[in-house]
Amino acid sequence: TRGIKLRSRPVGWPDAGVFELAELPVTPLDAGQVRVRNLFMSVDPYMRGRMNEGKSYVPPFQVGELLDGGAVGEVVESRADGLPVGELVLHDRGWREEAVVDAARARAVRPPEGISPSAYLGVLGMPGLTAYVGLLDVAGFQEGDAVFVSGAAGAVGSLVGQIARLRGASRVVGSAGSEEKVRYLTEQLGFDAAFNYKTDRPLTEQLRSAAPDGIDVYFDNVGGDHLAAAIDCLHDHGRAALCGAISGYNETEQPPGPGNLFKIVTKRLTLRGFIVGDHAARMPDMINEMGDWLRTGAIRFDETVVEGIENAPEAFLGMLRGENRGKMIVKLA
Ligand code: NDP
User: Fold this and answer.
1) Main-chain dihedrals φ then ψ at residue 303, nearest 5 degrees
2) Does the pLDDT value for residue 293 go beyond 90?
3) Which domain holds residue 184?
4) Angle 115-325-272 (CA atoms, 0-180°, nearest 5)?
5) Residue of the CA atom closest to atom 39 of ligand 1
6) Per UniProt, which keywords does this protein have (predicted)?
7) ipTM score
8) Nearest alpha-carbon partner for 91 in 100, 78, 79
C-alpha cells in the first residue's frame, strides 16, 4: 500500500516536488486499533499551513513523514471493540491507501441513503460545520440580513451562501475566481448576485454593484482585499466571521493589512475569528439540519473528485489554484 510523504517544506507556492509517493510496510495492529482501507481522503487549505515550520493552531507536518488529514474508509481488520470489520469510519489518517487507526480517533458513520461516504469530509463534516457555526454562531446571522461570502464556490463558501438563503437572508452575494463559478453561484446555488474577483475592476466597486444596499454580514474565506472591500460595504454594527485568508497562504512576505481599518471604529463593526474545532458540540445540530436540507434537495453540494493516491498532491495543488467546485476530494478505492 502507498502513501504521500512531505519531501521538503515549500516556500511560496508549493509544487509536486514537495511530495513523495512512498510504499508503506504493513504493520501488525495493537489492541484498540483498526486497519482501515481508505475510500476517500480530503485535501484542505489548512494543510498548506502545516507544511510550514512552526506551530499554528495544528502542529506542522514533519519532513520525511507521511502527511495526514481527514479520510473515510472501511474497517478491514479490527482489534477494537465496537468497530467491527465492514464498519465505515471517519478518521484523521488520510494521505494513504491503508491506515492503522486508534479506535478512539475514529468515528463510525452511516451515510443516509443516496449520500456518498465522502460527504463526511464535506457537507456533513468539518467544512459543513465551519459554514454552519461561522455564519450562525460567530457572525450571529439573523433572518433578513444581507450576506456576502468570499471563496463562495468552494466547500465552505458554497454552504454559507445556501444556509443564509435557507435561513431567510434578504440578499446573498458571493465572489469567486471565474465567470463559470459566478454562473454556478447564481444559476445553481441560488445566490442573488456574484462577481469574479479576477478582473481589473476594484473589489469594493464590484461588491457595491452586487449589494447596492450594503451588507450586514461578511463571511471571510479569503482575507486581504476582500476583507477591505467588505469593511467598505458593511452597515453600521455589521458583523464578520473571519474563517480563513487563503489569498495569503502562499505569500512569502506578510501581506499588508486592509487600509480602511478605522472604518471598524466609525461603523462599530464586529470582526470575529474562529476555529471550527472549538465548535464540535454543534456537530449534531449541523448534521440534523444539513441532513434534512440534503434529503429534501434544499441544499446542493458538489464535489470535484480526483482518483488515486498518486494524484493526491495534484488535487491539493489544484484546490489552491481554484480548480475545485464545491469540495475537492481524492477517491482512493
Ligand atoms: P475551498 O473549497 O474554498 O478551496 C479553496 C478555494 O480558494 C479555491 O477553490 C479558490 O477558488 C480559492 N482561492 C485560492 N486562492 C485564492 C485567492 N488568492 N483569492 C481568493 N480565493 C482564492 O476550501 P475550503 O472551503 O475548505 O476552505 C475555505 C476557507 O476556509 C479557507 O480559507 C480555509 O483555510 C478556511 N477554513 C477555516 C476553518 C476554520 O476553522 N477557521 C475550517 C475550514 C476551512 P477561486 O476559484 O474562487 O479562486
Assistant:
1) -130, 145
2) yes
3) 126-277
4) 95
5) 275
6) Oxidoreductase
7) 0.99
8) 100
- Which residues, judged by CB distance below 6 Å to any ligand atom, belong to the binding site of ligand 1? 44-46, 127, 130, 151, 153-157, 176-178, 181, 221-222, 243-244, 246-247, 274-276, 319-320, 322, 324, 327
C-alpha dihedral sign at 113, 114, 116, 121 = negative
**How far is it, in rounded angstroms, from Cα 196 to Cα 19?**
31
Q: Using the atom order of ligand 1, give the atom closest to the CA of residue 198.
A: 48
CA atoms within 13 A on the CB side of 47: 24
- So what's the pLDDT on residue 152? 98
pLDDT tens digits, 215-273? 999 999 999 999 999 999 999 999 999 999 999 999 999 888 899 999 999 999 999 99
Residue 326 near residue 153 (C-beta atoms within 8 A) = yes
CA Rg, the chain, in Å? 20
Mean pLDDT across 118-137: 98
CATH of the domain at 320: 3.90.180.10
Q: What is the mean pLDDT of residues 134-147?
A: 98
Q: Determine the residue of 51, 156, 226, 250 to mutate for testing ligand 1's pocket, defined as the one with the most ligand atoms within 8 A of the Cβ atom.
A: 156
**Is there a single domain that holds both residue 251 and residue 110?**
no
Q: Is residue 208 one of the residues assigned to a domain?
A: yes
**Interval between CA 17 and ligand 1 midpoint (Å):** 23
pLDDT attached to residue 56: 78
Tell me what pLDDT residue 288 has: 95
The Cα 43–Cα 313 span in angstroms is 9
What cell numbers appear for 290 in the block? 444539513
Q: What is the CATH number of the domain that holds 145?
A: 3.40.50.720
Confidence of residue 113 (pLDDT cuts 50, 70, 90): confident
Please tell me the pTM assigned to this model. 0.98
Please give the Cα distance from 94 to 120 (Å, whole number). Answer: 13
